[in-house]
Structure formats: structure tokens, C-alpha cells
Design a protein that fits this description.
The protein has helices at residues 47-57, 83-99, 105-116, 135-200, 208-221, 225-241, 248-268, 272-292; strands spanning 8-15, 20-28, 33-38, 61-70, 77-81, 122-126. It is of the alpha+beta class.
Amino acid sequence: MPVRSMTGFGRASSTLEKASIDIEVRSVNHRFLDVSCKLPSLYSEFERDVVAVVRDKLSRGRVDIAVMRNEPTGSSSEVTFNQKLFSAYWSAIEQGITHAGLNDRLSKALGVMNALNRRDVLEVSQEVSDVSGEKKALLSTVADALDSLISMRETEGESLRKELLSHAAQIAKLTGHLNKLAKDSSSAFQEKLTQRIEKLQPDVEFDAERMAQEIAYIADRTDVTEELVRLESHIEQFKDFLKQDGTGRKIEFLIQEMGREVNTCGSKSQSTEISTIVVDMKAALEKMREQIQNVE
């Protein structure tokens, strides 16, 4: 399965017997799957079903769905005027106009407009449609919009996959270089320590066998062979995860583990050259960490 980004946009439409449906879906990155639906009041009872369709197709991301239901022009509607309520509003407004000394025609005209704009003074009533038979078409259109969204997420996901593999290849290359330097550094460190001890030998008494054990102990403390072996294993596992669908959380965890191994190599380092390589590896890991935040 292809890698998916969590950022995308999808749209779908369908024409029904009494209306048409237009659906837009947008998504951005999110730690979990968070679905927000904006439905017409006639479709409010279908919200749970719409969310279920989303959860069946997506695993992560902040998803916003907007559903528009459009009835043909000329559908029966009626505007009613609530005279009693208007009179109450106008009486209060007129008193205010008089109190302010604004008895001109313009002030009164504005006062009338203000009263007409009050809630429930003018009401638009529309024939309530029976939408029970539109549920199947609605969910099918939602699925189509999500498929459009997924297509866009997969296109962007492919770009992310290539970038992530490029960074992984860089870390693998640096790991190989670090492996060679670490072996050479360990031998050089033992030799340098032995030479320093030999210079002190004329003036200092020591147990040669014990000293050899101490040198071996210190060399073991600076050895990063195990860390590098685990790092190489993590890189291969990382490549495998990129071939699977919905592994963004697993890859996040894996990058954290890779970071721990690299940090340990840096803390054990006795070489400036090794420390420089560790810094480059950390930079590549940070880029991977930023990009993986948008992988589903």
C-alpha cells in the first residue's frame, strides 16, 4: 500500500430526484483521527453514518466535511410577517429616536429597517422534504469525496516517501562510515592509553594484568558496535514500514529509537570526526521527524 500524507482535499457531487448534493472534504495532520461534519439540518440524523464512512477509509488526520444540499429554484417557500412582534420592536426603537431628538425621516426609515431585521419578524418557511431516501446517495457521495481526498494524499505521500528514503540512505551511509571510524578509534584509543602508561612505568608501579583489564574496560565503554548494529536494523525496518499503509505512528516511534542510538554514539565518542558525523545524523533525523508528522 502507498504511503499517505494527511493533507489533502476532495470533492464529489450527485444529483437526486428532489435535490443535488455537493460535498467537500479537507484534511490536515493530526495525531489521531478527528472528524468534523457540517451538515444541513435535514441530514443531521445521518452524521453518525457519515463519520463511520470516514473512519472506514482513513486512520489519522483532522478531517472536515462540508455537505451542501441544493433544491431546484422555485421550490415552495413562504415569507411571513409577524406584525405583533414588529410593532413591539418599532415602539421601542421609536421611543429611542424621539429621546435622541432624531425625528427626521431618515432616522425613522433606519429604525424600520432595524425592526424588520430583528429575529422572527420576517420568517421564511419552506416545505420540509422527506430525505430518508437520500441517505444511501449521501453516504455514497461522501465515499466518492473521500476517494478523491485519498488520491491527493497518496500523491503527496509518494513525495514524502522519496524524501524519507533519501534521508534514510544518508543515515545508512553515515552509519557505515561511523562503524569504520569507531573500530579504528577504539584501537587507537587503546594504543594511546597504553603508550601513556608505558611512559609512566619508570616512576609508577602497577599491576600489568590489572591495567590491561582497565584498558579493556574503558575501551568497552567507548565501543559503539551494538548501537550501530541496532541503528542499521532500525533503518531496514524503517524501509519496510514505508511499504505499508497506516504506519505513521510506528515510524515516529522508530525514529525516536534511531535518535537514541545516535545520541549514545555521540556520548561515547572519543573522536572529533565521529562527533561531526553524529551531528550530521541528528540533522537528517530531525528532517525525518518533521516530515513523518504528516504521514498517516
